[in-house]
Amino acid sequence: MRLLIDLDPGAPRRGLAVDEALLESVRIGGEGAVRLWVNDRAVVVGRSQTVGDEVDLDFTEDQRIPVLRRISGGGTVYHYPGNLNVSIVLRDGRSVGSVRNVFRFFGNAIAAALSDVCSAIVSDENDLLNGDAKVGGAAQARRGGGLLYHTTLLVGPTDVPMERLLLAMRPGYRPERVPSRPRRTVSLSEAIGGELPLERIAEILVPALSCALSVPLDRSALNAKEDRRVGWLIEHKYGDPEWNRSP
């Protein structure tokens, strides 16, 4: 199984496009992948959410933080260079089971791995928690048998208070469509009272995910066809205001 690692903050549109291209690839016989990656600043809403219900658009515009829509469900998250995104793309997600089983399987594997640096981490549905505070949230998308599971881990402290960006963190939050699940957040670094490099978390997660999936993970990159598809998705989908702001 392929292992793609890029810990330099990348363009958010590309970050989302690569996940979609990998999911499309496994649907036509491509090899599955584990991907560890970092986005530059962006607010990312779930597939079926209403942007105006979830995001303080005046603030994000003032701060020049793009607002993008991903292909998976779930709630709105803030990507920033202190986050580590973990994406797992499988040719046959049915081997892991139902939506709930997928969250449980990968959530437990990641929580167990992170216990090496923060012993209190537990998996709770699609969240990773340290006590009552959230350190990560996951979502998934399925296309035929293909599965994309991805989670955002808060490794370093946020550069912007979450309540300045996400309306779910404020009183009176009542979205018309799929809601986010507001929870107090804490980064892993804050939880242990010390700095945690992204490289350290990546070193922990790679063998843990290899073991959970029962396959070796071999460093790789996108193939030429996938890379072309990423370029198309950036231009025609994730760069399109209509996709990002509707419904």
What does this entry look like structurally?
It is a single chain. The protein is an alpha/beta fold and 247 residues long. The chain has a single domain, classed as BirA Bifunctional Protein, domain 2 (2-Layer Sandwich), CATH 3.30.930.10. Helix content is 35%, strand content 26%. It has nine helices and eleven strands. It has helices spanning 12-27, 51-54, 57-62, 99-114, 162-165, 188-192, 198-213, 224-238, 241-245, and strands spanning 2-10, 33-39, 42-45, 67-69, 77-79, 83-90, 121-124, 127-130, 133-143, 146-154, 218-219. Strands 7-8-9-10-6-2-1-11 form an eight-stranded mixed sheet, with helices on both faces. Helix 1 packs across helix 8 (224-238) and helix 4 packs across helix 7 (198-213). The longest helix is centred in the first third of the chain and has 16 residues, at 12-27. The radius of gyration is 17 Å and the shape is globular. It starts with a strand and ends with a helix. The mean pLDDT is 96.
Mean pLDDT: 96
Which stretches of 5+ consecutive residues score pLDDT under 50?
A: none
**What string, H for helix and E for strand, traces the elements in order?**
EHEEHHEEEHEEEEHHHEHH
Number of strands: 11
Q: In one word, what is the shape?
A: globular
From the N-terminal CA to the C-terminal CA, the straight-line distance is 36 Å
Class computed from helices, strands and strand pairing: alpha/beta
CATH topology, anyone? BirA Bifunctional Protein, domain 2
What is the helix fraction of residues, given as a range? 25-40%
Largest sheet: spatial strand order? 7-8-9-10-6-2-1-11
The CATH C-level class name: Alpha Beta
Strand content: 25-35%
